[in-house]
Design goal:
Helices cover 26% and strands 24% of the residues. By secondary structure, it is α/β, with parallel strands linked by helices. The chain has a single domain (7-266), classed as 4-Layer Sandwich (Metallo-beta-lactamase, Chain A), CATH 3.60.15. The strands form three sheets. Strands 1-2-3-6-8-9 form a six-stranded mixed beta sheet, with helices on one face. α4 (184-197) packs across α6 (239-251). The N and C termini lie far apart (53 Å).
């Protein structure tokens, strides 16, 4: 009988408070890499691959075969290492099909040329809500979970749900919904779907941890713990109350440091802009737009 429990290893990036994952089928040694980070020094304008290389070393050390490289959405606070890892492993890269909506939105913000593709061709697979796939012999499915972004999805791999920027740890709350294309009411409905449809014992793996009270980073909980303890969305919190709480909180938050850098890379599957005639790639920053 096939185990429904992937072995999940988290890798924490203290700079962006992001969690990257390797979810592996212990029987077949096949794995998925989820939300990998490409390091970026915004002061020097320099990229590097330390975090992604640590994941590759973990794969080698545990004799794993990378079957998928998955992003949950186009991230606003770090660059995706999806394309770098595809180059190193040959594994296909995937994201939700609504990334096309995000591409079209940010194409307007960046005033990219008309020929800039916004059909998601940069990825090998665009997942729709309800799509299924395998990680080794473990069944996986996709839940469209918008609200933080138009394209956010949850990967349910066996008994593990990778929810990224929807829920955070039960002692912290939920993700913001004030980016272009975000919506607090939509986020509430996405979260309730996750908590209502998945079994209480489902392991919940979040995409960030902000270490409230100075505790050590954490990234695993359960559906039951979220329903009981999450201060923003525990059972009994209705949509109106959630939206009021989320909007008040979002009004106090500054934009992520890397949002204007990251979206032009992450809407391109983690590929940097094409080099210009001097061989150098350049980022484009819109002024006075936010």
């Amino acid at each position: 009988m096939t185990s429904q429990q992937p072995q999940v290893t988290g890798f924490f990036d203290y700079k962006t408070f992001s969690v990257q994952y390797v979810a592996a089928d212990p029987a077949t040694r096949q794995c998925a890499i989820i939300d990998p980070v490409l390091d970026y020094d915004e002061k020097a304008g320099r990229t590097s691959t330390g975090h992604a290389d640590a994941i590759l070393q973990h794969v080698r050390d545990h004799d794993l075969k990378v079957q998928w490289i998955l992003d949950t959405h186009p991230h606003a606070d770090h660059f995706s290492a999806a394309s770098y890892l595809k180059e190193k492993t040959g594994a296909p890269i995937a994201i939700g099909e609504h990334v096309r909506d995000v591409q079209q939105l940010w194409k307007r913000i960046y005033n990219w040329p008309a020929e800039t593709p916004t059909d998601g061709r940069q990825w090998d697979r665009l997942f729709a809500d309800g799509d299924t796939f395998q990680v080794g012999d473990i069944p996986a499915r996709v839940m469209h979970s918008p609200g933080h972004t138009l394209a956010s999805i949850t990967y349910v791999i066996g008994d593990a749900a990778f929810v990224h920027d929807t829920l955070f740890q039960p002692d912290f709350g939920t993700a913001r919904a004030d980016f272009p294309g975000g919506d607090a009411a939509t986020l509430y409905r996405s979260i309730r779907r996750i908590l209502d449809e998945l079994p209480p014992a489902t392991r919940v793996f979040t995409g960030h941890d902000y270490m409230p009270g100075g505790r050590e980073p954490q990234w695993e909980s359960t559906v039951a713990a979220q329903r009981e303890k999450n201060p923003h969305v525990h059972d009994g919190v209705d949509e109106q109350r959630f939206v009021a709480t989320r909007r008040a909180r979002d009004a106090e938050l500054p934009l992520p440091v890397l949002i204007l850098h990251a979206l032009q890379v992450n809407t391109n599957a983690g590929c940097l802009p094409a080099p210009e005639d001097n061989g150098v790639s350049y980022l484009k920053i819109p002024l006075n737009q936010f």
